[in-house]
Amino acid sequence: MDVARRERLRRYTAEGLRLAAVAAAYYVSAKIGLQQQLVRGQVTPFWPPTGIALVVLMLWGLRMWPGIALGAFLVNVMLGPSILPVLAIAAGNTLAPICAYLLLRRVGFRTELDRLQDALALVFLGALSGMLISATLGTGVLVASGALKAQDFWPTWSVWWTGDAMGVLVIAPFLLALRGARWPRGAPVLRWAEAVALLGGTAAVTAAVTHSSIELLFLVVPFLIWAAFRFQLAGAAPCVLIASVIAIDAGAVGSGPFSGHDLLAKMVILQAFNGTVSLTALLLSAIVTERNRTLREIEEACERLTEALSRLASDETLHQWPSSRPKGRDHRT
Fold first, then answer.
1. How many CB atoms lie within 10 A of CB 248?
2. Which pLDDT tens digit goes with each residue over 205-256?
3. Extents of the domains making up the chain
4. How confident is the model over 18-35, as pLDDT tens digits?
5. pTM value?
């Protein structure tokens, strides 16, 4: 009995520590996201906790929801406006990734993101559909509590929804790629140099085009195509994270292509860019990975077929070989 009790205590302690780690990760990532707040110190164009919460649910299941709820509550209770609206907003922040996770599980989503259907599911079910809950509930609560004017509902809702969706599209693929990453043993020096050049080039070009008065945001796309073709998700996800963070910082200060616009127009430009880089990298890397896997399967099938034909030809040769048994004489008279 003592052994069973100690085992239960150990299991409960491990689960409690995991929930605390989830809450802490949610809180810390939320504080980072709030550095670029645009509305009332509370609504940001990039909300990393949604991506973290969704990945946590993918890896450890629905039992992690209390950690997500605790982290969401701790973040929002510091922002106000009062306890009841805070509880409602925290509930929306918890329900959104839960619903996104359930939708993804319904369609057989695989965390390897090695199929086109997985990438499409993450975009349309995990990000765009699932995050409608948190944006609608959160903005509605702010208006109902008097913390936000009614005419500001749609601009605030657009920032909230796209911010939560970008958290999924940017953070979730990065964490999933990080989870499946393996240190490449024996990789040539040129391969490492290419990876460093890719990350550095993405950062440099994004910083340049987001601080230029000329519309040159499209120059980032070739780097994402390069990353997807050469490194698949392991290279595309970090490039998307770098490009999105730099663009969001430029959008928050209103530099380059984001200057001289109101909140809604600024959000349209910013999230159009973020959506383009995320979709390009995510979908293309999934297509390339799926193509490579199909080619490997075809090669393996051809090898098996060649071996089978070789064995068949060998057996046929043995059957056709003339018998060496001598013929006996006929002694009949």
1. 25
2. 999 999 988 888 999 999 999 999 999 999 999 999 999 999 988 888 888 8
3. 7-181, 189-318
4. 999 999 999 999 999 888
5. 0.87
C-beta of residue 72 within 8 angstroms of C-beta of residue 49? yes
CB 166 within 8 A of CB 49: no
Which candidate, 180, 168, 43, 175, places its Cα nearest to that of 101?
A: 168
Burial class (CB in 10 A: 0-12, 13-18, 19+), 261: middle
Tell me, rounded to whole angstroms, the distance of Cα 219 from its chain centroid: 23
CB 159 within 8 Å of CB 38: yes
Residue 107: C-alpha distances to residues 90, 132, 290 (Å):
27, 19, 18
Please state, in angstroms and rounded to a whole number, the distance separating the CA atoms of residues 310 and 20.
Answer: 60
Non-local CB neighbours of 28 within 8 Å, separated by 6+ positions: none
Determine whether 175 is exposed, middle or buried from the number of CB atoms within 10 Å of its CB (0-12, 13-18, 19+): buried
Q: Which residues pair with 43 in a beta bridge?
A: 39
The Cα-based distances of 185 to 50, 69, 182, 237 in angstroms read 33, 40, 9, 21
Question: What single-letter DSSP state applies at residue 82?
Answer: -
Could you tell me the two tokens for 128? 């765009």
- Alpha helices, H only, 181-232: 189-209, 221-231
Question: How far is residue 172's CA from residue 109's CA, in Å, rounded to a whole number?
Answer: 13
